[in-house]
Amino acid sequence: MKNINNKAIDHNTNDKARLTDNKPNGVKLQWHWLLSSRVQQLNSKRMRPVAKSISGKAIFLLCVASFLAGSLLFTNRTTSDTTIKAAQSISSRHVISSIPNHVEKLSLVTFGCDKKRKKLAETGLGNVMEEVRKTQQAIQSLDKTISTLEVELAAARSWTSLQQQSLDHLHKDSSNYSSNSSLQKAFVVIGINTAFSSKRRRDTLRETWLLKGNKLKKLEKEKGIVIRFVIGHSAAPGGVLDRAIDDENAEYKDFLRLKHVEGYHELSSKTRLYFSTAITIWDAQYYVKVDDDVHVNLGMLVSTLARYKSQPRTYIGCMKSGPVLSQKGVKYHEPEFWKFGEEGNKYFRHATGQIYAISKDLAIYISVNSGILHRYANEDVSLGSWFIGLEVQHVDDRSMCCGTPPDCEWKRQGGNTCIASFDWSCSGICNSVKRMKDVHNACGEGGGAVWNVDI
To answer: Where is this region: Disordered (predicted)?
Structure first.
């Protein structure tokens, strides 16, 4: 009986094993556990007699229960795997869908960085340009300083050279005051522009405001006021005109002769040469040019110049800006009118040519650069053009261009004595030979004024 039961159990076990071979691994494990438990129970029962055998119905129910348990475990595992995969799929879709947003954000950040980088680059470029500008300004300032030093050095060299060669610019009979090679100290040198045909004009000046003889020498010695008629030579040196001037100079000793051929259209060259020559003879603080048909009060002139003696590069006169005359044949025609702009334009400000004064440093400047100073048709325009671009103080003194009586007379009576008087219509005193004495009597400051000036 025992052997029959064992065979039945083995048979059932084999059937269950074959069934489990067709299930998944999870179910096989369950079956294996159940069978192991059952075998242990049976082995324990071998030790004692079996009271009752297990029926086939119970075995069948056991098998069905085991099958249902294995199916339930398999379903749970499958559901779990599906849920995990679904979650992974959702996560992947979320990641993929969020990529454009991150790309957009990254683009914004990149754009911002590029903008900041560009701004930084522009700022850096601006700083570089600012440094370049400052460097250029420093270079320009240095160039200006160097140019100034070069001019001053050239002036010093010229001054030394001119001291040694002063007589080379003069005629051997210019005056008794040019025989000494050393420079003579003076406060002002007044050069009266004259011509060969102006003998009578010169005589009227000597009889009015211009001192002569011993008084002229005394004025030069005591007050440092040098006065000379300035004239060149004729086109035929040694001719009648030149000999007449030599004779006149021998009598009055008040001429400064220039190495210059006289001519109305050469006034610019004559003016340039006058300043260049005067500084080789006199070491003065001021150099004045005046025409021989103008009335001058020497005391007023000297006292006015004394007010500016501490200021460098001074250009004093009655400043004007007349029209540029382009029409040929008229007086004061300007052949180079096109340089002054459109037709109808005016000249730059310059002192009227009847009388003006310049300080010593400007006279030296003219002498040093005389070879390259441009000369226009009108000498006053030429002088004004030489100072354009320089640090020159223009002093506009209207008392240097008073009219003839009654204008200058009324001003004198009012306590405003004029420095110079003339008629604008004649660019000097009209018919000065006849009227100079009348102007002097009406507008003169008095013979003793110049001696009382404190220089």
So the answer is: 1-21
CB 260, CB 169: distance < 8 Å = no
Query: Could you give the CA distance from residue 300 to residue 294 in angstroms, rounded to a whole number?
Result: 14
Determine the pLDDT at residue 33.
54
285 within domain boundaries: yes
Strand locations in 147-281, DSSP E? 184-193, 225-233, 255-261
β-strand 225-233 against 393-396: which pairing, if any? unpaired
Residue 97 tokens read as: 């869908």
Provide the CATH number for the domain around residue 234: 3.90.550
Q: Could you tell me if residue 293 is inside a domain? A: yes
Domain count, the chain: 1
pLDDT tens digits, residue range 241-257? 999 999 999 999 999 99
Q: Considering only the C-alpha atoms of the chain, give the largest distance between any 2 of them, rounded to a whole number of Å.
A: 189
Q: Name the burial class of residue 255, with classes exposed (0-12), middle (13-18) and buried (19+) by CB atoms within 10 angstroms of its CB.
A: buried
Burial 324-341, CB ≥16 within 10 A → b, else e: bbbeeeeeeebeebeebe
Q: Which domain holds residue 199?
A: 166-393
pLDDT (average), residues 369-393: 93
Structure tokens at 112: 């911002």
- d(CA 12, CA 73) in angstroms, rounded, equals 24
Q: At what angle do helices 379-386 and 267-278 cross, to 10 degrees?
A: 50
> How far lies 218's CA from each of 177, 227, 277, 451, in Å?
13, 12, 23, 10
Flag whether 349 is in a domain: yes
Q: What confidence tens digit (pLDDT) does each residue in 421-434 have?
A: 999 999 999 999 99
pTM: 0.62
User: 277-286, 293-302, 441-450: which range is least confident on average?
Assistant: 441-450
Q: Write down the mean pLDDT value for the chain.
A: 78
**What's the CA gap between 454 and 180, in Å, rounded?**
28
